[in-house]
Specification:
Blueprint: E1 10-15, H1 17-23, H2 27-44, E2 50-58, E3 65-74, H3 76-86, H4 90-96, E4 114-118, H5 119-124, E5 136-141, E6 146-147, E7 157-158, H6 159-171, E8 179-181, E9 184-189, E10 195-198, E11 201-202, E12 216-217, E13 227-228, H7 232-235, H8 264-272, E14 305-310
Parallel strand pairs: 1-2, 2-5, 4-9, 6-7
Antiparallel strand pairs: 3-4, 3-5, 3-14, 8-9, 10-11, 10-12, 12-13
């Protein structure tokens, strides 16, 4: 096993009293499972920041897994500049280079719109300084039948996979695709830039209206379609989750009795939306753009608004 780098991502959970109350005798096992899920990202990414997540629970089965995040707005120029400055891996350089999915100029024209990042993501992209205040909340329905470690028992769900799913939404794996955030309609985020229908053809609401029946994750402007995304126009729910297929923690839907692991394509996804992957192939970092940081607001980043997602 390779040693962790000196610079390391730290995910800090704060478990609520509700978590202990509703999970009861399973609380310790559920906590250990959540921490194991967080450790996947602590091991694979090296951003020298703290991601502070409140871990809550609800009674019953009305919630399966749910995340709440805080979003800050910024200009597309600032978003592009921060992603370019943060590029470290081969996938990063593909994404921000010629023929990459992160266009040099705003791909949305002719309509008023707003770009957003999550608070945790803003720290990873050096838009705001690291801090120890809450970056988001993950909530789990304690009445659901979960397996917390080892083989997944028939009729139960992989809690660690669900936790990984919700943790990464706090980190910025959201997808907004023209959602209304507060008083801001037509909202988009960094994850949206990697949704494609084909070579040079962006998917989702970039095509106008709700179109997501054949969207994929791509880092190279749709030339290579890496993973099909959830058809949120038909299914509702989350824009940038994966469509049904191989078991994966980022899938929109989970079957019982199966492990839903964090896969390589999941790590590639997190890499290009702002996190520094440790064991990916790296190339020399190019000259970066200076980013001035002024407290919470940073360069063009607004105060953070809460965004809730259900999975």
């Amino acid at each position: 096993m390779a040693p962790r780098p000196a610079a390391a991502l730290v995910i800090v959970p704060t478990f609520t009293s509700n978590f202990d109350t509703f999970f009861g005798a399973n609380a310790a096992a559920a906590k250990a499972s959540w921490i194991a899920a967080a450790n996947v990202f602590q091991t694979n990414f090296s951003d020298p920041i703290h991601i502070n997540i409140t871990v809550d629970a609800a009674a019953g089965t009305g919630v399966f897994g749910q995340s709440n995040t805080f979003l800050g707005s910024l200009t597309y120029a600032n978003l592009n500049g921060s992603v370019t400055a943060d590029a470290k891996t081969a996938d990063d350089f593909t994404a921000v280079g010629p023929g990459g999915s992160v266009a040099t100029t705003d791909p949305l024209t002719g309509t008023t719109h707003t770009w957003w990042v999550t608070k945790a993501q803003a720290k990873a992209l050096s838009l705001i300084p690291d801090d120890n205040t809450t970056d988001g909340i993950t909530t789990f329905g304690a009445g659901n039948p979960f397996t917390f470690s080892g083989p997944i028992a028939p009729g139960t769900y992989d809690f660690q996979g669900v936790a990984a799913h919700e943790i990464t939404e706090v980190m910025g794996r959201l997808g907004l695709m023209a959602a209304t955030i507060g008083n801001f309609p037509n909202s988009y985020d960094l994850a949206d830039l990697f949704t494609y229908r084909g070579a040079g053809v962006r998917g989702g609401s970039f095509l106008g209206g709700c179109q997501s029946s054949n969207d994929f994750f791509s880092i190279n402007n749709g030339t290579t379609l890496l993973k099909q995304e959830n058809n949120y126009c038909a299914n509702g729910l989350d824009v940038d989750d994966w469509a049904p297929g191989a078991n994966d923690s980022f899938n929109q839907f989970s079957n019982s009795g199966v492990i839903n692991p964090v896969t390589d394509v999941d790590l590639r996804n997190m890499d290009v939306i702002g996190y520094d992957r440790v064991f990916a192939t790296t190339t020399p970092e190019p000259s970066t753009l200076a980013l001035m940081v002024t407290g919470l607001l940073g360069v063009g980043v607004s105060g953070f608004k809460r965004r809730q997602k259900r999975s």
